[in-house]
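Changelog entry: the Protein kinase domain-containing protein record was regenerated in this release. Current contents:
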Amino acid sequence: MSVGNEYVTNFQRGIQDPPQVVLRKLFERLGATYIKLGQFIASSPTLFPEEYVLEFEKCLDKTEPVPWEVIRGRMRAQLGRPLEDVFSFVDPVPLASASVAQVHAAVLKDSGKEVVVKVLKPGVEDVLATDLDFLYLASRVFEFINPELSRMSLAAIVGDIRSCMLEEVDFLKEATHISEFAQYLERTGTSSIAAAPFVYRAFSTKSMLVMERFRGVPLTDLAAIRSTTSADPESVLVNALNVWFGSVLACETFHADMHAGNLLVLEERNGQASGRVGFIDFGIVGRVSPGTWMAVEALLTSVATQDFDTMARALVTVGATSTDVDIKAFAADLERLYTGFSTLDAEVLVAAGRNGQPVAASLNMDDAQINRLLLQIVQVGNDHGIRFPRELGMLLKQLLYFDRYTRILAPEMSVLDDNRIRLR
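Regenerated C-alpha cells:
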C-alpha cells in the first residue's frame, strides 16, 4: 500500500498521522537517498525542528540484502579479477545490509588475514547523485520564489546535505579518513592504546572497501570487557577519551559517530598491548575550526565549574546570531537546563561481585535520549536568537555518548575534573 493510500485509509478511520510521520514513512519507501536523508535529519538537531529529528530516528536503515551472486559480480568488477585470486574465503551471508552498502566477512588468500568487505549496492551512487542534484536545484528555485527561504539558508543546508551524503558513499574518502586517524595514532605514540583498521588499498575502490577485521566487545558491556582484557575498564575509557579529543584538532576530520557499536575493546592477540580500543566505521565524520574548538573548550571548562555566564558566552561565540544576546538571561536558562541534566541519568544496571565491586553493567539509553538532550540545548539557543552550526551538534553528541560510557565504566570519575583527561 502506498503512503498516500495508507494516509487516506487511516484518515477515514479517524486516524491522522502528523506530517513528520507521513514524511518518514514516505522516505523509507522511496529508498536509499531518502533513508540517508532521514538519517541526516535525525543526526542534525541544530538544523531541523525537534519533531522531525525525533521522528526520523525511526528511519530504518536495515534492508534486505542484495543476492550474493549480484554482490559477487560487483566485487569481481571492482577487483578486475576473480575473487579467488584475492580471497581464500568470502562469506556469502552478509554481516550487515544497509540502504547503500552491504558488508561481508572474508579471508585474504596470500596472508590469511581476516578482513571485512564493504560493497556499495548496485545503482546507489547514480540514484543518490540524481536525487540530490534535483533536491538542490529545487531548493534554489524555492528560494527564488520565496525570499524568506533564502534568509533561512535552505539551499546552503541542502548543499551541505548533498556533500555529506555523497562523501559517505565514496569509500576512498572513508579509507582516507581511516588512514589519517591511523597516522595520527602513530604520530602521537598512541597506537598501543587505540587502533583503526588497516585498509587494503590495493583491493579498495570508490565502491568497495577492504579492511582489517576487528574482533572485540562494545565499550558499554562491562562484563565482556573484563573477560576480554586484563586492563582496568576505567583506564580503557580514559584512553578512548584522550585519543578522540586529540583527533578533533590533530586530524582534518574527527569521528562523528561514537555510538557503542563503533568503539570496540579489542581482544588480546598477536602480542598487542592489553585494552586497546578499536575505532571503526569512519563513514560519518565532522570538521571543526580551531575557533570553534576553543569555544567548546571554554564550554567544557565552564560545565566543570558550573560557571553558566562563561558557558553562555562560549555558546554565543560559536553560534550565529543577528541580535544582541542577554547573557544573564541565557546563563539562567542554561543553569536550569543543567540542573535538569544532572537529575536525568541513564538507567545503569549493575551486578556486584562478592567483594562488592561491579562486575557487570549495561546501559539502557539510546540515541533518542542523546538527541533529546541536544534538542534541549538547541531550543534554549533558539529562544535567545542563537543558531548553532551542525559541527557543534556533532561534537556535543559525541561528548554525550562518552558521558554515558563513563556512567558504566567509571561512575566515580568526573571527566572534566580528571587530570588524566587531555582536551588538546
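The radius of gyration is 23 Å.
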